[in-house]
Specification:
Elements: H1 7-12, H2 16-20, H3 39-72, H4 78-101, H5 117-148, H6 160-190, H7 194-197
Helix pairs in contact: 3-4, 4-6, 5-6
Length: about 200
């Protein structure tokens, strides 16, 4: 026995992809495939994603070699543990910056979807101003850490500042993107209808 859905039910059905995509956020998005957003941000994001892929491969090789050494050769590789920790730190911060650019961090947007355009852009502006303030604090803290760090790792002898630089670079890039999005919000607050006519504003 087969059942057929009524035309009215098909019309009322909501496409999940459409629901998850807030059209008022289009002017704030940076998309590599659609060439949306400043070109510099797109190229830096592309480079970060390639770096993330390389770090993942190196991390898998490092951890796997240590597991094989312990299991089959009964011999641990201390350098592999140290390398894995350093790679994981870089992976976290570079991944956080790339995810911020692509709007892939977890967010609760239940309220902003139901606000009028001006109120929504005002909320987006407040959001990015808070992000900028937080990133400035992280940048300053990272600078203090790097200015006082003179040592190196115990086994590989990698300078600690090379590891700490991942935090500073991540915060600097997120700050730059957040400033651009805040400026976009100010522009859209003046003319909310412009977002529907220029979905790739800022490119």
């Amino acid at each position: 026995m087969t059942t057929t859905s009524s035309p009215s039910r098909d019309r009322d059905a909501v496409d999940p992809e459409v629901y998850l995509d807030d059209p008022r956020r289009h002017s704030l998005e940076i998309d590599l495939e659609l060439r949306k957003g400043p070109a510099a941000f797109r190229w830096i994001t592309f480079a970060m994603e390639q770096l993330i892929a390389a770090i993942l491969v190196a991390l898998i090789v490092s951890v796997s070699s240590n597991v094989i050494g312990r299991s089959l050769l009964n011999h641990s590789l201390p350098w592999a543990d140290e390398l894995a920790r350093m790679l994981f730190i870089w992976l976290i911060f570079i991944g956080a910056a790339a995810a911020f650019v692509r709007y892939e961090h977890i967010a609760v947007d239940f309220m902003v979807r139901r606000l009028p355009p001006r109120a929504a852009y005002a909320l987006y502006l407040l959001q990015h101003l808070l992000i900028i303030a937080l990133m400035v604090v992280i940048l300053w803290s990272g600078y203090l850490v790097m200015s006082r760090s003179t040592g190196a790792t115990a086994i590989l002898g990698v300078p600690w500042n090379l590891i700490n630089a991942s935090l500073v670079l991540c915060a600097a890039f997120i700050t730059a993107v957040a400033v651009w999005r805040a400026l976009q919000c100010i522009r859209l607050l003046r003319d909310p209808e412009r977002s529907s006519t220029t979905p790739d504003a800022g490119a």
